Amino acid sequence: MEIADYIVASDGELAARVLEGDDHAFEYLFNRYREAIYRLFVQRLGRTDDADDLLQETFIKVYINLHRYNTAYTFGQWVYTIARNTFVDYVRRRQDGLSIDEHFAAPASNAPTPEERFINLQQRTQIEHYLERLTPRYRQLIRMRFFEEYSYEEIAAKLSLPLGTVKTQIHRAREQMCRMIAEGEQH
Predict the structure, then answer these.
(1) pTM score, two decimals?
(2) How far is CA 72 from the centre of its chain?
(3) Does residue 30 contact residue 59 with C-beta atoms inside 8 Å?
(4) Burial class, 164, CB count within 10 angstroms (exposed 0-12 / middle 13-18 / buried 19+)
(5) Is 144 helix (H, G, I), strand (E, B) or coil?
(6) 8 Å CB contact between 169 and 138
């Protein structure tokens, strides 16, 4: 597909191409909505701190859940809904007294950002490959949190676990999955 074709393609066409394995199409979708979603986070936060992290988390969820996009809604409405839910989760985490850095603790690095890693991954099958390598508990938690978009509280209730345990295990599962993705990209 030529660059001009990406530029004039509708959001629905680009989403369909992403699902067919075209990572460039996701870059164009990301670029179409990046600034608006970023401004939304800055407006709601009243500052730029954490807006980049929320933007990354939003678009990771968009990529992972793209197969769930319902064309009855505009793509922008769907992305906005994911961004809004991501912001609500962020506010809940902040109310729990933990900074976003504690939830996404990782050493500084020159490695690709999470969204770049996901954009470069080839389709959901590769994500499934990494998920299958997690322990059953971690796999279940990642699916519930990022694929089914349950809140921490909902997961704790469904699994009859303390909230702190759920948060810790999801953090560890996310770290383990990120390590596997990083190792996979080096090979």
Answers:
(1) 0.51
(2) 22
(3) yes
(4) exposed
(5) helix
(6) yes
Q: Which helix (H) or strand (E) holds 111?
A: none
Token pair, residue 106, equals 């990782």
The helix (H) or strand (E) run that includes residue 92 is: helix 75-95
**CA–CA distance, 43 with 47 (Å, rounded to integer):** 7
**Contact status, residue 125 vs residue 21, Cβ threshold 8 Å:** no
Asked if 2 and 24 touch (Cβ cutoff 8 Å), the reply is no
Three-state SS for 49?
coil
Query: What's the token pair of residue 128?
Result: 């499934």
Q: What is the pLDDT of residue 122?
A: 46
| Spatial CA neighbour of 84 closest among 31, 29, 30, 37 | 37
Tell me the torsion sign for CA atoms 171, 155, 84, 28. positive
| Block mean pLDDT (10 aa), the chain, length 187 | 83 89 89 91 85 90 89 86 91 68 48 47 62 88 82 90 91 82 59
User: What is the amino acid identity at position 170?
Assistant: I
Q: How far is CA 171 from the centre of its chain?
A: 14
